[in-house]
Structures are given as C-alpha cells and as structure tokens.
Design a protein that fits this description.
Structural class: alpha+beta
Radius of gyration: 27 Å
Oligomer: single chain
CATH architecture of the largest domain: Distorted Sandwich
Bound molecules: alpha-D-galactopyranose
Number of strands: 39
C-alpha cells in the first residue's frame, strides 16, 4: 500500500493490493484523474490516459494553451465558470458577485495515518500503518483562498476516503454556495446505479437504474439523511452480480442534507458528485475561516456487490464506529413500545421485566412516555424528567434500581432534538425552535425542532440528559428523531448566516452525541428516526446500532434488512420480534419466522411477553438460547446475500465465521408456491476443503459442494408446496 509521487510526470499514484487511483498535476496546475479502478502496476507516466481535449466548440483556458480545456478532461475537484460545463464541486461567491475561481496546485504532502475531521464523524486509523494520506493544496491567486484536498487510502481494504477544507486566507468575505466532499470523473458510462430508497416503514429498498445523458441524482433536503434516500449509491457494471464484477461504491459520512449524483455527458463520461446538498446550503467564509466538508468513502471491487458490502461493513466496524460496543455481542432486549405505547405503569414495566428475566432477556428498554406530561404525542418532549409520579412513583432512578435488582439491564428512550408546545422548555424558551419569529412553525407529530445550531440549546439538553443518565442505572439509550426539519431558520443568527443552519444543526447533534458518549462510554446508544430515517454512517460513528424500521413485520423486514445490508453491518441493525397481526401491515407470520429474520441483527422483542401462552414462551426461551449461543457469529461474522427478495419469491442470506468453521444461513419464503420446483441454495464464503455438518446432521458436506452443488430447499407444505412466510435456519459447523 502506498502513495507514490512521480516528480517527472507530476503524477500521484494511490494504491493498495486491490485498487489504484492516479492523479495528474497538469502543467497549468489543474488536477485531473487518470485512473481509478483495479490495482495496476506503478510506473512513471500514465499521461497517455488523458483524453484529448482539443475539439471544435471547446473553450480553452488561455489563448496560448490550446491544449488546456476543462471540458473533456477528467477532473478531481471541478470549479465553476471556466469551460467545464458539467456539475461543479464547489462555487465561491466573491464580494463583487463573481463566482469565477481558478485554483491551481501549490504543493502536496504525504503522510502515514489519518487526521480527524474537526466536529465531524469520520473514519480513523488504529495504527499509522492502517492507511496513508495525501493532502493537495490548491490556491486561487485572486481571492487567495486555499483548498486542501485530502485522500486516504486504507491498507487492507479497497477504500479511499476524501474530504476538503476550504480556507479563506485572503481579505475578502467569501460565500460558499456549494462545497461538495468529492467529485470524480469515470471514463465511460456503462454502469447501473444502485441506491437505497423508500419511506417510513419501507426504508432502504434496493433500486437500480441506468444513468444516461444528463443527471441522475438522489439526496435529502429534509434535515436528516432520511428514509427516502440513503447517502449511498453504487455504480456497477451491468453484468456485475452479488459475487462478481466491477462495483464502485460511494457513501457520505453525514446525517444531514446530502446529494449523490451521476452526470453522464454526451461523450459518455460519468461525473460523480457527493456531499452536502447545495440547495439548502450557503456558508459565509470570512478571512481566516475554514470550512471542513464531511467525508466521502469510495469503495472499489471487481468481486461484486457482496464484496462491496463486506468492505463497508469492515470499514465501519474497524475504522468508523467509536463505541466500546462495536465488536461486542449485543444484549437481547425487550422494548415496551409496541406492547404498551405510552400507556404503562411501573407495575406493568416490572411485570414485563419479570417475564423477560425468566425467558433469558438481558435488557429492558422503557420507550416513549416516561417524562414530563407525556400521555400522548401532543406534549412532554423537552422536559426530560419525571413529573407523573402516578406512573413512575420512584422516578427513573427508582425503576432502574428495581430492574437491575432483577438482574436485568435498563435502557431509556429520548428524543433530544424536539420540543412540544405546553412544556416547561417551550414556555421558557419559545425562541429555541427553528422558525422565523414572524412565521407559524409547521407541526409534525405535534412537535417542533429545537435549534441545535445553537450551543446554548445543545448545552441545556445535555444538562437534562446527563442528570438522568448519571442518577439512574442506565446501560442503553435509544435516541429518536421523529420529524423532518421545516422553517429552517435560527432566531438570533445574522441574516447572511441563515444558510449555515442546516449544517450547523447536524453539527450540534454530533456535538451532543460526542459529549454524551464521552461522558458515558459504557452506555450502548441506538439511534432511531421514526424507525430508520437517520440510518447513516455519520450517526454510526457515535451509536453502533440503529432502529432499522418501525416496520417489524417479518416479511417487510426481510426487504429492509436485505437492502440495509448493502452498506451497513448486521450488528448495526436493531431487529425485534413483534406481535401478530403486525401493527404496521396487519400480516400474521409465524413466531419462528419473525425470530429467524430478527436474529440477523441486534436482536430483541417488542410485544407484550406477559400475554404469551406457555408454548410461545417456551419457543421464545429457545430462540433466545440459540441467539446467545451463536450471536458472535450472527452479529459479527462475514455477511453474504444469497437470494434477493426484490427479485424472487424467497430470500436468503448467511453469516460465516472469520475462520470459516461455522456459518448460519437464513432462508425465507415470502409468498408460498404450490407444487414448486426443486430449488437449490448455493452457499458462499465457506472453506471449500472443510466438511460441515448441517444442523448437527450425521451426514457431512464439503464447502465446495455446498457452494457449487448447493443444498436443496426443503418444502414446507403438502404436495411439494411452500407455505407463505415459512423459514429455515441452517447452522453449519466444521466436522
Ligand atoms: C418512533 C420510533 C418508535 C418509538 C416511537 C415512540 O416512531 O421509531 O420505535 O420509539 O417513536 O414515540
């Protein structure tokens, strides 16, 4: 692994065993990209890869440089207004209204390791040997602004991360109208764009489309990364599958408004742009100020989508998540939300806890409704203390003592960024919500968004949360965010700084996460946003798991968890068994299927276990024992998708242990098929030479046999049919 600078050719080659990324510094100081893809040998000069840029109807940079046009070259961080005509990565407005800039190469630096990004979540190295970093300094002679482009290449993962810093070293007041994290031009457009899209209760479904001339983009302007479009996309070769073929993956380590875009020009090259969504962003940059963009992650593989996903999973677990819980087995939990919603008493919670203990559950989570005057969703948010002593006679402290005395851990729900009218917080600080004072804020779930761009607001909420968390025995926090941001205006902030509010808001959220996770390093944080509306790499930096979706229907969850696995590790997906008929879909699925889906995740239950029959409780006890026995493998193995619920009437996935001596396969029938075909499932990731038992069968099967000949799918019904919503778990262990 390394970064080599070839002085004669002015080329920089970033590489590891799997990828190469080659930048050329042109004689006029422009930065162009010569190659990004599978690892190739290093050599002095790759300039033959530069496309010819003299064509009719082309704008040149100066009249003496007829071979320097910006229109056809592949650029590293394209500017606006000088003849490129494709999407710029940044736009800087100057005091005279001009947006024309001409940054050119000044110097560069190569060093081992990687520096943190101030105030932002980002990947990190554990040792200096994990990665090398290149910083390229560009300068605009007129404004004297400096752009620092940072590239880190990881040693053992096919990953390059990029971000930029824009520094105003001149005397003008500048305004950043756009400051994306990264841009890259690929030489052709023979790709399919794979992305994750959806809505509440159907988050992160996989969609594929063919980018063609013009722009294909996804993004969010909702103030959260959103359920609608995750900050990720991949470009795959049309022939690439789960297991083979070229895939370029891109994601943004960010939880606010984001843009991911592919622009195919009429010469069929593809420009990728990724960063903060420019439509909701304007950042005044005064002299001596620096703007730091979020970090973008580039993954390259020629081994298909599974390899891309495994790379993201490993990168996030080894170089992004900070929590002490990252590699640990997650406690089996019970959450009271779907059982009681806000209508609970201490007595009821203790009954659930008692049954939970009997069944082998380790953690009970008290969800929404414990604080302030919260009886329904019209009030209470913001008053993070108990006022209703009829409900909780000994407060949270007393309840936490009773629960820990039962031998269970205790967890608590918060929604720190929100406020309801009618609360003490709102009465005392009506100006702490986002909204211009002369407008009426638009409610969503009867609540308003606190102005987290303000430090005093964040400090106030920290004070309330710190008090509860330090006074009670709390080992887990669920941090919710149940509405998107409207009227994004910060009262008391200067008019010309309002364009900063969305980004400053999310920086405020990060600062609260940072303070709380530092103060309580042993607490397991789970993020949530009306289910999975803020499931992104930014939040994972602080909270190693996220509530995947409010939709707990097993069949819907197969799609949601399958889609989520494109980017996010199984250990990060909160997955619970809930009651039937399901509250979101009305569908009834077997208890076994519900558990077989949820066990590939941070596993738990979310139903009234006190109301279960003896048989159901026995089944739950067995499920929990199975999960506990195998959860290191289930949560922290290497994940493979085997069968897509978006393409077939069945789905399957599997986890393989690092030494390939064990594996667990989940197979799920969606709608049953009568008199169905004799189908086989082809496993992945096994050691071809190992012989395995399946579910402690006497018979053994070689790894190569299981991967190439496959295992027959048993039928679940009479007359060779499959029953709706049935499932199998196959546990493989080496002989
Ligand atoms: C959101 C969450 C749920 C639950 C409720 C409580 O919808 O996604 O899991 O916590 O809020 O109000």
């Amino acid at each position: 692994m390394g970064i080599i600078y070839h002085q004669n050719s002015q080329e920089l080659h970033l590489f590891n065993n799997q990828l190469s990324y080659i930048i050329k510094i042109q004689s006029n100081g422009e930065l162009t990209n010569l190659y990004y893809g599978k690892r190739i040998h290093d050599k002095e000069d790759f300039s033959y890869l530069q496309p010819g840029d003299t064509r009719p109807l082309t704008v040149y940079q100066t009249k003496d440089s007829p071979h320097h046009s910006l229109q056809h070259v592949r650029r590293e961080y394209p500017d606006y207004g000088r003849g490129d005509f494709r999407t710029p990565a940044y736009v800087i407005r100057q005091e005279n209204g001009s947006r024309v800039t001409a940054f050119s190469y000044e110097s560069h630096k190569i060093y081992r390791g990687k520096k943190p990004l101030e105030g932002l979540p980002a990947t990190y190295t554990r040792n200096e040997e994990d990665a090398d970093t290149l910083e390229i300094r560009l300068k605009d002679p007129v404004t004297e602004a400096v752009i620092l482009l940072s590239y880190t290449v990881f040693c053992s993962l096919p990953v390059i991360t990029r971000h930029v810093q824009i520094m105003n070293q001149g005397t003008q007041k500048l305004v950043l109208e756009r400051a994306l994290s990264a841009s890259i031009d690929l030489p052709d457009s023979e790709y399919e764009m794979v992305y994750l899209t959806g809505a509440w209760a159907r988050e992160r479904h996989i969609r594929v489309r063919k980018p063609d001339h013009g722009i294909s983009s996804i993004g969010s302007m909702r103030g959260a990364s959103s359920a609608e479009y995750n900050p990720f996309f991949a470009l795959k070769r049309p022939s690439a599958t789960e297991d083979s073929g070229e895939v370029y993956g891109f994601c943004l380590i960010y939880s606010g408004n984001h843009l991911e875009q592919v622009e195919v020009d009429t010469e069929q090259s593809s420009r990728i742009s990724i960063g903060i969504h420019p439509d909701t962003f304007e950042w005044p940059l005064n002299p001596q100020e620096t703007f730091v963009s979020p970090e973008a992650v580039f993954v390259y593989t020629d081994q298909g989508l599974n390899a891309m996903s495994q790379t993201f999973h490993r990168l996030f677990k080894e170089h992004l998540m900070q929590s002490s819980w990252t590699d640990r087995e997650r406690p089996v939990l019970i959450n009271n939300w779907e059982a009681t919603e806000m209508d609970f008493t201490e007595q009821k919670i203790l009954e659930i806890a008692g049954t939970a203990k009997e069944l082998g559950i380790e953690l009970i989570v008290l969800d929404d409704g414990w604080f302030g005057g919260r009886e329904d969703d019209t009030t209470g948010l913001g008053d993070w203390f108990v006022t209703n002593f009829d409900k909780l006679p000994d407060g949270i402290e007393g309840l936490s003592e009773k629960i820990t005395a039962l031998g269970l851990q205790f967890g608590l729900w918060f929604e720190p960024e929100m406020v309801n009218p009618g609360t003490k917080l709102y009465r005392e600080h009506p100006d702490w919500i986002l909204c211009p004072a002369e407008r009426t804020p638009s409610p969503s779930r009867n609540q308003y968004v606190l102005d987290f761009s303000r430090k005093d607001v964040v400090d106030y909420i920290y004070g309330l949360m710190e008090r509860v968390l330090s006074q009670a025995h709390i080992s887990y926090v669920k941090w919710d965010m149940n509405r998107y941001i409207t009227e994004c205006y910060s009262i008391g902030t200067a008019a010309d700084s309002q364009g900063k509010t969305f980004h400053k808001y999310i920086l405020g959220v990060y600062s609260l996460y940072e303070k709380l996770t530092r103060r309580f390093p042993d607490i397991l944080f789970e993020s949530c946003a009306s289910g999975g509306a803020r499931f992104d790499p930014g939040i994972l930096y602080y909270a190693p798991q996220a509530w995947t979706s409010d939709d707990t229907d097993a069949i819907e969850r197969i799609k949601i968890q399958y889609g989520t696995s494109l980017v996010y590790p199984v250990s990060s997906m909160g997955a619970h068994v809930s009651e039937v008929p399901n509250l979101q879909t009305g569908r009834s699925t077997p208890l076994k299927t519900r558990a077989d889906v949820a066990m590939f995740g941070a596993f738990g239950y979310e139903l009234d276990i006190t109301a279960m029959s003896r048989e159901e409780k026995d089944a739950v006890r067995e499920q929990i024992a199975f999960v506990k026995e195998h959860r290191l493998l289930l949560q922290h193995g290497t994940f493979y998708r085997l069968k897509s619920p978006f393409q077939e009437n069945a789905s399957a996935w599997m986890m393989v242990s690092p030494n390939r001596k064990e594996a667990i396969v989940g197979y799920y029938n969606l709608l049953g098929t009568p008199n169905c075909r004799f189908d086989r499932l082809y496993l992945r990731g096994l050691n071809p030479d190992n012989a395995y038992h399946i579910n402690s069968s006497a018979e053994t099967y070689y790894g190569d046999e299981l991967m190439h000949a496959g295992i027959p799918i048993p039928h679940t019904g009479v007359c060779e049919s499959n029953v709706d919503f049935s499932s199998f778990i196959f546990y493989l262990s080496v002989v």
